[in-house]
Write a structure and sequence with these properties.
Keywords: Membrane, Transmembrane, Transmembrane helix. This is DUF2231 domain-containing protein. It comes from Candidatus Aquicultor primus. By secondary structure, this protein is mostly helical. It has one domain. Strands 1-2 form a two-stranded antiparallel sheet. Strand 1 and strand 2 form a beta hairpin. Helix 2 packs antiparallel against helix 3, helix 2 packs antiparallel against helix 5 and helix 3 packs antiparallel against helix 4. The longest helix is centred in the middle third of the chain and has 32 residues. The chain is elongated and about 50 Å long. The mean pLDDT is 81.
Length: 155
Amino acid sequence: MSSSRPHYTPTSGSTEIKYKMHWHVLLVHFPIASFLGSFTFMSLHLLAKNSCFDLAAYVSLIAGAIVMLPTTMTGWITWKHRYKGFTGKLFLNKIRISFGMIFLSIVLVIYQTVYPFDFLDVRNRLNHTLYFGGVTLLMMGAAAEGYYGGRLHHR
């Protein structure tokens, strides 16, 4: 249900319109944008060889990791209350992808924080490949979450 859809409650002969807030719908777009931004900035960094893009990719990754927690929590609450915890394939896929994204984003943030490296340093080529692969997986996970969410709401 969209956050702008009114909930009608009759009161003493008239109809009062109340808007019900859907927090998951509001929050869900932030991790998608953050992980897409991190991927884009990292790609620009590798092409332009500018360290500012590396920092922007790291900050976007942190933002995505932080906002994944309330997004997943509100999704879980919506699933339990609105869909009564129905365990269909669509819901199970969304749950698995979400928890996988939380785990991977936290691992990548911790790794980059504890072992910072310059992407222009050739000695860390394997680390760069693994890190970039992880961010790519997060972007693909965000796209999959959006796909399954769209299938859920547009049936």
